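User: What would this chain look like folded?
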Amino acid sequence: MTFASRKWLSNIERNPFAIRNLCERLRLLLIAALLFLVCVVAVSSQGKRATTSKGKTEDLTLGKRTYSANCAACHGLDGKGGERAPDIVTRPQVRQLSDAALLRVLQEGVPNTSMPSFRFLDIKTQNSLVAHLRTLQGAIPGTKLPGNALRGREIFFNKGACATCHMIHGQGGFFASDLGGYARGLSQESVHEAIVSPNRDLDPRRRTVVATLRSGILLEGIARNEDNFSVQLITPDGALHLLYKSSLANLTYRDQSPMPADYGAKLSSSELDDLVNFLFSFAEEKSNRKAKDESEDD
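Assistant: Here's the prediction, encoded as structure tokens.
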């Protein structure tokens, strides 16, 4: 240590105010350094978000352009089908396919149909095409849903009693459809609407059927299979009844879903958001698991 350094330290030790002043300067320097780091991180994060957002927008634009050039002539600009190709927007068989499965259809086509292979498109363009299809189906990329999935699970299995009829992830009833992948490709609004207004745009296959036996017993449920001579009726307890129409006193069809129509009053707005979030969380998990399985199979 030099003579000047020893003298400087000696003066500081004899002067408590100098020590306090030195500590204050060091504290200010530390604060300034931390503020500088925070600013650098914030600017970097904002830049990444802007780049990501720009990238997603470009991908959707590419997908829309590619769809218009290669797909719209057969499937229609809105994807709801035409004379030469089916509806790929509202059909459950298409909506429930994972992104990986849709890519496979693009790459391999569909044998014995007019759907060709689009393997000549590069993988980025194929992915953008799938993203555009999801947009047509009602999915909004990057949208954070309101509500809480954990609270939604409690509603599904308890207050809402959804599990009495519906199954999800192997738990629940057999009367109604499995909702494990139901929300995939749907918009938040359409799932919400299906819960609070189950009779709107009701699929005739989902209407309530009431069979009156000659003994006077009433069986109410959904027809799983039906022909001119018989009907297979599943009742809310999960039992499947094979009924011959000639043995029935009456068979009526109601333009009404067996699903309760009072969830809009039974559940609060926030509880409905929780329930919708729960259904979407399972759809995403199932989609990711299916995509992983398909990737492993390849």
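Strands lie at 167-168, 171-172, 208-213, 218-226, 230-234, 240-244, 248-254. If you want, I can go into more detail on any region.
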